[in-house]
# Entry
Amino acid sequence: MTYAIETQALTKRYGKNTALDGVDLVVETGSVFGMIGPNGAGKTTAMRLLLDIIRPTSGSATVLGQSPITGGAALRRDIGFLPGELLLEGRVTGRSLLKHYAEISGPVAPGRIDALAERLGLDLTRHVRTLSKGNKQKLGLVQAFMHEPKLLVLDEPTSGLDPLVQQEFLSMVREAQHNGQTVFLSSHVLSEIQNAADQVAVLRNGTVVKVGDVASLRASAVRRVVIDFTDAAADDIRTALLALPQLDNLTVADGEVIQVTGTVEGHIDALVKAIAPFHVVDLRVEEQDLESSVIDLYSNEANK
Amino acid sequence: MSQTMTRSILPLTRRNLADSWRGLLGWTAGVAGAILLYVPLYSSFSGDNAGFEDIIGSLPDGLASTLGFQDLASGAGYVQATYLGLIGFVLFTIAATLWSSAAIAGDEESGSLELTLAHGVSRVQIMAERSFGVVLRLLWLSVVSALLILALNDSSGIDLEPAHVIGGCVALFGLGVLAASFGLAIGAITGRRSFASAAAAGISLLGYILNSLGNQSADVDWLHNLSPYYWAFGNSPLSEGADWGSLGLIFGISAVVLVLGGFVFNRRDVSA
# Structure
């Protein structure tokens, strides 16, 4: 097995502040690897290290078999990068800007830019500074994908994109994978990348908390449930639910509508079966924001 | 070799120029306006009845020498005092300050340098090409200056040797390049536009002040030796021709400063 990205104890400190703390990651060639974590977890720092925009304090990284520092410009021609905060300015059209980036990246096949722009619904004749955030993001995606690089490094690629374009983006990722390209992407929301990524690493405070496939991560994710009942006794419901080991933080608010809230770790099967005898008016299962589910993951890891 | 075929010549310099041509147009108009305003006025001052010398004589002691107005009666002295040594110098300093601080530090502060760096270009290439873009724009303003002064040479009566006009404009160009090299290097080292601007404007101002102080008396004449402004203009290039040795020193220092800036830039983290 070859690795498109391999890091060993990769560490980046800014003064006393540790942005990335001894991260070991391997991304298999041809895979789609997601990195999730709250803002400030170190996702962007890790990506900048891979592109030699910043240098590690200690540890090392290998990208496409080379160190980003010694690989230099030639290595970066084989990478397509989308920065997390894409700032595009200037009185130039999208087409002219992309032409410039094509000149300083790997060779771009004729017609490729137009094909990508059309897929994403991006107007290349407009001046860059007049573009909305979503359209700038599309421009950023085009410049990352256009030279069909061996490795795509995409920081929060779906941010600002509407759901239809997100779908198109996911199909571009799948095509890239089909072509043998490797995709390394980040998000602060698991749901945005769960359909794309084979493997996911959860980052928190600069360390990798967990690595696994999406299914196993989802199974261990903590979700918040809200259930409304009518025509039932609050005490009966409480008794039935207290018996469930997966359910925590239970509250039962009595009234005409009895509202039950709680958090569920893992599958919700047992919960659904436990409430089946009662009259359920509404059932909402919400994925917690990643901040809290990562905290749960983190504390679970610490307790084991 | 297919990769080298798609590589084009100086992509970053061309982008730099393409992004800035509107601004350059404005600077060209400013430089042209200053020359077209000041140089033709010489004929109205230079006549026997103009009393120009009397006006200078009436200025407080030291002010005339501070402003470099000792020799306003000759065409060379007049163009030196009004354009090359004053308005032109100020315009070149401001242009060099703005352009050099924007080239690396401004781009870094705005966040767009990150994306350029992520492509197939080295830091050294970015430093070299963007510096070249700034130098080219300053060269353009120098060429415009020389051509306009030469165009007005007869009609205004300044009566300068064409080679000396070119020498004087090369000296002005040199001071612009020196200021720009400090702005580019400090911008590349610190990534801060304010530091870059301070360095570029500061080196010009320092040279001007040292020269003015050196003009005051023979006791402090040695201050001239420290002033790039004096290196460029001290020998009165419009009447005597350029002092190529001193200009070589100015361009040499600029090159060293740029190399130092590129050296540090190549080794530091780029922030966003």
Remarks:
- Chain B touches chain A at residues 2-3, 6-8, 11-12, 15, 18-19, 22, 110-112, 114-122, 125, 267, 269-270, 272 (CB under 8 Å).
